[in-house]
Design a protein that fits this description.
The protein is mostly helical. Among the domains are: 163 residues, Tetratricopeptide repeat domain (Serine Threonine Protein Phosphatase 5, Tetratricopeptide repeat, Alpha Horseshoe); 118 residues, no CATH class. The longest helix is centred in the last third of the chain and has 69 residues. It is elongated.
Length: 572
């Protein structure tokens, strides 16, 4: 019973996908650890002393995980000496959690699997559930949602045979969190409501705070800000009462998001600063990165672009180092927004592509939910198949064939959806490119128009200048004309070739006899620009452009007068 109680204590603490570290120095923690060892009753046998060390570590790591890691390693060493399997499993599990927060993912995963192997050997169902939950949280952080879901399903199957409402509430809440991350709100709400009922029935306030926080995030995503604020406030009250600084830090950040959406920037920044302060004191890397992103977005809305880029870059670079997919995804999207506002379309496009690639992997709801349901059905069929192997060989062959067909169905269906997603992404990319090119072209047209206005003003005012200055005025007019004729076109051509780099290569392959001016005209027509705008950019009359279009149509062999240049050139 004592062992079960300690395992339950582990499960109570794992509310978020990362654990939080304090700034206490290593030397100080060594002294504290020595002091704790001395306090443990020397008359206890070795296994009970190890249990006490694990207990100390478990109750310490939320506020000082460096000390908890020292204690976990000590418990691990002592368990190895006396071959105490249960102590080994608990120590590996706790060590894995702390390594996960430090960003040491390989060490964390290795520790979890060592713990899982031992829990399986000693048939500790609660320990196994705990490990599957921790693995799922780790996979979720890395954006490996299918692997995370697989771990949660394994945990739920164990709980079917060994029910535990507190553990079940935690798994349901984490499943709700996962479905929020993959943008499946209905499934998220279903699991969070189950978790809420279980938490209330078992009177586990710490679990309830986590549920309220997730419900707040769900309603926030639906833009139900008042409801989200109510949920976050409930979660904060519970967390403050229990002095759970981990939750307090996270909820301050979430409250800041709500206030930001309400345009209450002062209150938003106040909450972000509180969140960052606590997260920094706890050295919680995930929470720090999320808060960097939130503060950066606030500066972006206030058009403080330099500050925004600074925070987004911190989030992006550190997230890349630790493999935190949510941080990379959010910061890349926001960097795209900033650079678009600043007119740096190349960087805006670069970061948008990074965001789209991650978002496509993590938000393909139809495929994800479809495969999830088929996966559960196949698991049930597999279990039935194993039970019938001994006495029903013929039925086994039929069932095996069914499973193969089902598996092929999953593969073909998944490939269909993946192909459809790829096609949609290609269309989105094409629309984005055309939009960016059009924006650039319009900008250049307006720039040329401004040049033309300045030129006309100087022409009209030229005679008003003294004779010796009229020559200078004419030189300026000539320079403006040259800028219109050369600089504007060069700027457009450089940008055009950067975005559609293969356009002229493919066009020249089919029509090698096109002149330089005709190739320029093709670029502008590829942008679906009007004759008037082309006239403005090239500084040629509308009549001249119409004549050039007619000649070009013949050279390109466009005999159908109803077919536009844009539709013809789009294939290049």
């Amino acid at each position: 019973m004592k062992k079960i109680k300690i395992v339950k204590q582990y499960i109570r603490f794992i509310f978020f996908s990362t654990i939080f570290i304090s700034f206490t120095s290593f030397a100080q923690n060594e002294q504290i650890a020595d002091s704790l060892y001395k306090k443990i009753d020397a008359t206890l046998d070795d296994s009970l002393r190890i249990d006490e060390i694990v207990n100390f570590a478990t109750n310490t790591y939320l506020n000082n995980s460096e000390l908890a890691l020292i204690l976990a390693k000590e418990a691990l060493n002592q368990s190895i000496k006396i071959n105490y399997q249960w102590g080994l499993a608990n120590s590996y599990n706790l060590k894995g959690l702390i390594e996960l927060d430090l960003g040491n993912l390989e060490e964390a995963e290795e520790s979890f699997f060592k713990a899982l192997e031992i829990y399986n050997a000693i048939n500790d169902s609660y320990g196994i559930v705990n490990i599957y939950n921790n693995l799922a949280l780790m996979y979720s952080n890395l954006g490996k949602y299918i692997e995370a879901l697989d771990s949660y399903i394994k945990a739920l199957k164990i709980l079917e045979n060994s029910p535990n409402n507190e553990s079940l509430s935690l798994i349901y809440t984490n499943l709700g969190k996962l479905y929020i991350e993959v943008d499946a709100p209905d499934k998220a709400e279903e699991y969070l409501n189950k978790a809420k009922i279980l938490s209330i029935n078992t009177n586990t306030t710490h679990s309830l705070a986590y549920v309220y926080a997730m419900l707040g995030t769900l309603t926030y995503d639906k833009n139900q800000l008042k409801k989200a604020l109510s949920y976050y406030t409930h979660a904060m009250e519970i967390s403050v009462a229990s002095n759970n600084r981990v939750m307090i830090s996270s909820i301050h950040r979430l409250l800041g998001d709500v206030y930001r959406e309400e345009n209450n920037y002062n209150k938003a920044e106040e909450n972000y600063r509180k969140s960052l302060k606590i997260a920094t004191e706890l050295n919680n890397s995930a929470s720090i990165l999320q808060t960097y992103n939130s503060i950066g977005y606030l500066h972006f809305l206030k058009k403080e672009y330099d500050l925004a880029i600074g925070y987004f870059n911190k989030c992006y670079e550190r997230s890349q180092e630790v493999g935190f997919q949510e941080g990379i995804r959010n910061s890349s999207l926001h960097l795209s927004y900033v650079y678009n506002d600043l007119g740096n379309f190349k960087l805006a496009y670069k970061y948008r592509v990074i965001y789209d690639n991650i978002n496509e992997r993590t938000h393909s709801n139809e495929i994800f939910i479809y495969i999830t349901e088929l996966y559960i059905k196949l698991e049930q069929e597999r279990e039935l198949h194993e039970l019938q192997i001994v006495s029903h060989k013929k039925k086994n062959k039929i069932l095996l064939s069914y499973l193969v067909v089902s598996a092929l169905l999953i593969v073909f269906t998944a490939l269909f959806f993946i192909q459809r997603k790829a096609t949609q992404r290609a269309i989105r990319k094409e629309k984005f490119l055309n939009r960016e090119l059009t924006s650039k072209a319009i900008f250049l047209v307006r720039k040329n128009e401004i040049f033309a206005k300045i030129e006309n003003i100087l022409k009209n005012k030229k005679e008003q200048f003294i004779e010796e200055n009229q020559g200078i005025i004419q030189d300026i007019i000539n320079e403006i004309k040259q800028a219109q004729n050369e600089e504007v076109w060069q700027e457009f051509d450089l940008y055009f070739n950067d975005i559609l780099e293969d356009f002229h290569k493919k066009l020249n392959a089919d029509f090698p006899k096109l002149s330089v001016n005709e190739r320029k005209l093709c670029s502008l027509l590829r942008m679906n620009m009007t004759t008037k705008d082309i006239s403005s950019i090239t500084q040629q009359s509308v009549q001249t452009i119409d004549t050039a279009r007619s000649r070009l149509r013949k050279k390109l062999g466009i005999s159908n007068m109803n077919q536009s240049f844009f539709s013809f050139l789009s294939k290049y």
